[in-house]
Amino acid sequence: MSPRGEELNRSLRDRSRRNILAAALRLFAERGFADTSMADVARAAGMSKGLAYNYFGSKEEILEAIVERRLAEQLAEDERLAGAASPAERLSGLIDGALARATAEPEAERLLMAVMLRGDAAPAIQTARERLKGRLLAAWREREELFAALGAEDPAREALFFGAVLAGLAFTALASPAPLDLAPLAARLREIYLDPGGRLPGRSFPSPAVDEARPGGGPAARGARPPRS
After folding, report:
1. CA-to-CA distance for 201 and 150, rounded, in angstroms?
2. For the chain, where are the alpha helices, taking DSSP H only?
3. What do you get for the CA distance between the two ends of the chain, in Å?
4. Greatest Cα pair distance in the chain
5. Neighbour tally for 151: CB within 10 Å
6. CA pair distance 157, 210, nearest whole angstrom
7. Phi-psi category of 32—alpha, beta or left, where left has phi over 0 and alpha has psi -120 to 50?
8. What's the pLDDT at 215?
9. Block means of pLDDT (10 residues each) for the chain, length 229 residues?
């Protein structure tokens, strides 16, 4: 096959793969993972079940691919921000990135959130997380180091709380019946987390079970909660 033919074939395969993932995500969110079959996914993607099996060996593999792709995209953005010039710039970038993800493709994000909250999807989610375990752990350590550089008394606790705040804001944006202007929320978050000198204002929060929430550190880490937002 000529290089041009190989490129066309690769493009068609990539498009078919994307169609399967998009169709599966919608069905998993609407019907539930357990009540969706490979035949359902293939039909929704506009292809035969046999052809769908050429791309994925099972619906579990499809869900793993969906979650892994989403986590990898988030990690790539966070890894890029790790090279920012200052801790304040890194924190600001994390805020902007989390809110941007919630609004860039809101329908896809709502569907993914619905799928990840279903108990029957937990095994596939854990498998995807295991494949990215090294990067997830590195991302968590970098988040702790960021808050240490900002002057937090307990960097691990602050990192956990910060991730929960971002996740809550993203959920609020996705659950809103009307589009939200997130710019004021981002600005307010910067006021809360950065004083005029680019440091973390002094405050304390109730201490959560941080060790349990770290990736690989306990039950929370083995569930669907990513360590970073």
Report:
1. 9
2. 3-31, 38-45, 49-55, 59-81, 87-104, 106-116, 122-131, 133-149, 155-175, 183-193, 210-213
3. 44
4. 64
5. 16
6. 6
7. left
8. 55
9. 73 93 92 93 96 95 91 88 84 89 82 82 88 93 92 92 90 85 88 78 50 47 40
As given in the structure block, the two tokens for residue 70 are 């989403």
Nearest alpha-carbon partner for 78 in 56, 57, 93, 92: 93
- Which residues are CB-neighbours of 212 under 8 A, at least 6 positions away? 218, 219, 220, 221
Cβ-contact 119, 169 below 8 angstroms? no
Token pair listed for 122: 């937990």
Long-range contacts: 160-169, Cβ < 8 Å, 24+?
A: 160/208, 160/210, 160/213, 161/205, 161/208, 162/94, 162/193, 162/229, 163/226, 163/227, 163/228, 163/229, 165/189, 166/94, 166/95, 166/98, 166/99, 166/229, 167/98, 167/229, 169/98, 169/99, 169/102
Six-digit token string for 6: 């190989």
Structure tokens, 131: 């494949």
Residues with Cβ within 8 Å of 14's Cβ and at least 6 positions away in sequence, in order, are none
